[in-house]
C-alpha cells in the first residue's frame, strides 16, 4: 500500500473517527434526555398540584370575602337598629323627625352595643387587609406558575431542537458509514492488486539475482588469475612508500627539535621583551618566523598523512578491493627499475622550505 493510498484515506479516517465518537455521545445523551423529560414531568406535576392548591385557597378566600360582606351588612343593620329600635329592617327612620327625637334615640342606645359595633368594624377592616394581602399572594403565585410554564415550554423547545439536530447528525453519520464501507471495499481490492504486482516484481528480482550470482562467480575466477601479479606490484609500491615514510619521519623529528629549541629561546627572550619594550618589532618578527616554521611543519605532517594513505592504498587488500589492479597514486612517478619517486616540487621543496625558514629564524634571533 503506497503513500497515495494513505493520503487518500485520511478523510475516510476522519469520518470513521467522527462515527466512532457519535455512538458514545448518543449513548450518553439518551439517558440524559430521558432523565430531563422525567424531571420536567415531575416539575409540571408539582406545578399542577400547586395550582390546584391555590385554586382551593382562592375559593375559600372568596367564601370568606362573602361572609365578611354579610357581616358588614349585619353590622350596618345593627347600628341602624340601635339608633332606631322601633324600626324594623325593612323600614327607614322618619324623614321629618325632630333633632331632639334623634338625640333621645342615640342616648337610648346602650354603650355595650356601640362597643360591639366598633369591634365589628375593626374586624371588618382587618379582614379586608387580610383579603388584599391574600390577593397579592395569589397573584404572585399565578405569576410564578406562568413563569414556570414558560420555562417548561422553552425547555421543551430546546429539547426538540436538540433531538432534531441529533437525528440529522445520526443520519449524516449513517450515510458516512455507508460511504466508508464502499470506500474500504474499493481500497481492499486496490491493495490486493498492488500485492499481486509486488509478488510478480519479487519473482523477477529473484531471477535477476540468480543471474547476478552466476556472473559474480565468473568474475571471481577471472580476478583470481590476476591476484598474484597485482599483489606483487602492490608490495613493491608499499616498500617504496615505507622508505619515503621513514625519511619524512626523520624530517619531522628534526623539525620538532628545532621547534623545541625555538620555543626554549622564546621563553628565554620573554623576560627581556618585558624589560625592553623598545625591541618589540624584533620580537614580533621572531614570532612571525616561528609561525612560518609551524606552517612548514604542518605541510610536512600533511605530506606524511598523504604518504600514509598511499601506503594504505597500496597495501594488500581483499579480493576486488580498491587497491587491486589500480595505477599508482597521483603525485608519484615510476622509476625505470620499478620504484616510484615523488613528483617534482613536493618533498624536496618541503625540505628546502624548512631549511630556509630555519636560517631565517637563526638570523632573527
From TrEMBL:
Residues 194-207, 224-234 have a biased composition (Basic and acidic residues). It comes from the Eukaryota. InterPro entries: Inh_kappa-B_kinase-int (IPR024152). Residues 181-234, 322-365 are annotated as: Disordered. This is IKBKB interacting protein.
Amino acid at each position: 500500500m503506497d503513500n497515495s493510498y494513505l493520503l487518500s484515506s485520511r478523510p475516510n479516517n476522519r469520518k470513521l473517527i467522527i462515527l466512532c465518537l457519535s455512538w458514545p455521545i448518543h449513548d450518553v445523551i439518551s439517558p440524559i434526555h430521558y432523565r430531563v423529560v422525567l424531571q420536567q414531568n415531575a416539575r409540571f406535576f408539582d406545578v399542577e398540584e400547586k395550582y390546584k392548591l391555590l385554586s382551593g385557597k382562592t375559593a375559600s378566600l372568596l367564601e370568606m370575602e362573602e361572609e365578611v360582606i354579610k357581616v358588614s351588612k349585619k353590622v350596618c343593620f345593627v347600628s341602624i337598629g340601635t339608633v332606631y329600635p322601633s324600626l324594623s329592617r325593612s323600614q327607614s327612620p322618619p324623614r321629618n323627625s325632630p333633632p331632639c327625637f334623634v338625640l333621645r334615640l342615640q342616648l337610648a342606645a346602650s354603650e355595650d352595643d356601640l362597643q360591639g359595633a366598633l369591634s365589628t368594624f375593626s374586624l371588618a377592616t382587618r379582614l379586608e387587609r387580610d383579603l388584599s394581602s391574600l390577593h397579592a399572594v395569589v397573584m404572585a403565585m399565578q405569576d410564578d406558575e406562568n413563569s414556570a410554564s414558560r420555562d417548561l415550554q422553552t425547555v421543551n423547545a430546546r429539547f426538540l431542537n436538540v433531538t432534531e439536530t441529533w437525528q440529522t447528525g445520526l443520519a449524516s453519520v449513517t450515510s458516512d458509514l455507508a460511504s466508508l464501507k464502499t470506500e474500504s471495499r474499493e481500497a481492499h481490492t486496490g491493495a490486493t492488486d498492488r500485492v499481486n504486482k509486488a509478488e510478480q516484481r519479487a519473482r523477477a528480482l529473484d531471477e535477476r539475482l540468480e543471474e547476478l550470482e552466476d556472473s559474480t562467480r565468473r568474475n571471481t575466477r577471472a580476478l583470481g588469475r590476476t591476484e598474484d601479479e597485482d599483489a606483487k606490484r602492490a608490495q613493491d609500491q608499499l616498500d617504496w612508500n615505507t622508505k619515503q615514510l621513514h625519511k619524512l619521519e626523520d624530517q619531522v623529528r628534526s623539525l620538532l627539535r628545532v621547534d623545541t629549541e625555538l620555543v626554549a629561546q622564546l621563553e628565554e627572550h620573554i623576560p627581556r621583551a618585558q624589560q625592553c619594550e623598545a625591541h618589540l618589532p624584533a620580537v614580533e618578527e621572531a614570532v612571525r618566523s616561528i609561525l612560518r616554521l609551524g606552517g612548514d611543519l604542518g605541510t610536512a605532517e600533511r605530506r606524511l598523512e598523504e604518504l600514509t594513505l598511499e601506503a594504505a592504498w597500496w597495501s594488500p587488500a581483499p579480493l576486488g578491493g580498491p587497491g587491486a589492479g589500480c595505477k599508482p597514486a597521483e603525485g608519484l612517478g615510476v622509476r625505470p627499475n620499478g620504484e616510484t619517486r615523488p613528483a617534482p616540487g613536493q618533498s624536496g621543496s618541503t625540505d628546502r622550505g624548512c631549511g630556509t625558514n630555519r636560517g631565517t629564524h637563526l638570523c632573527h634571533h
